Amino acid sequence: MDAGLPAVPDGTGSPGVDQTEAQLLPDVPDAGWLAEARARVAERPETVGRYFAAAGRQVGRAPLADAPGWHADEAARALLLAALPPGRRAEEAGELYGHGDAGEKRAVLKALPMLGIGAAAVPLLLDAIRTNDTRLVAAALGPCARHLDQPAWRQGVLKCVFMGVRLALVHDLAERADAELATMLGALADERAAAGRTMPDDAITLLRSLTREV
What is the pTM of this model? Predict the structure, then answer.
């Protein structure tokens, strides 16, 4: 999934920090800078913003060969957030997301499954879903979307359909899709048909599946 790493059994249903490091760390350029930056952040959490902002310049933005869907700057920023003391992660993630550009916001969203901040992630997810940035919307519907209540999650899925985000990127889609989502998708399909527009193929497939179940 583009919005996150494969799930690792750690008691929470989300990737654990160690496994994420194993996938991300070896492929990030300038490992020396990142190691030093993470050590400083662990000792002095207030410095995370400085290193977070510098990550793109230091490690570049190339895709990571061993972690599909991740770029070097995103991985470095996620690892910096994971280096924070657990009690500072929610606060710092919120600050960095709030003041970040689109790339920095996406890095925070993709880091969320590593951070273990639970429902504190919800305001960030809701904000991302409200944007018109397909990459942010997709990242928001990754593993941490399990913290969204069902109405908010349905709106996120509908936003994906509206914007053309692949539904394969929606975490737990098969488990969470329900009759109310079918009703919403059906209404959108009717609106598009009336306007001479079509629905994405994956949305049609989902709607047909839900209609059969209903």
Answer: 0.86
